[in-house]
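User: Teach me something about this protein's shape.
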Amino acid sequence: MKNFFKKIIEGSSIKPSVLCQKSFNDNFRDAINVEWINKEALYEAVFYRNNIEHIALFDSNGMLLEYRQNLPVEYLPEQIKTLVLEKGEIMNSVLKNKVNTVEYEIIYKDKSHQRFLILLSELGVQKEEIML
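Assistant: First, the predicted structure itself:
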């Protein structure tokens, strides 16, 4: 329990490269509660902006490869929200931005309480749907 509180107060002990930190600061100026995770040759930053959790992935040269943000249902584009609500109740939604391509990853529950993951383009084109 002591280590848990220490981590909250002091933050993550992982230190990304200077280039990675600069890129993070340039892209996410108003981020708070940043925690860094080292994943092989990559750095992942988990943080909050505007009370929404984000995850950003950087290479060691500071290149932003991808970021995700948990997205409240009310922030989903109307076309996407309408399409998924026709299938069932939205349980969780994530906006994914990878190399300037936006996708929505949504978990929904149908009328029989079966959960599905659906991946949609920013225009609402279904790319994938799997039963969970």
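Now, about its shape. The two ends are 34 Å apart (CA to CA). Helices lie at 2-10, 18-27, 78-85. If you'd like, I can walk through any region in more detail.
User: That's plenty for now, thanks!
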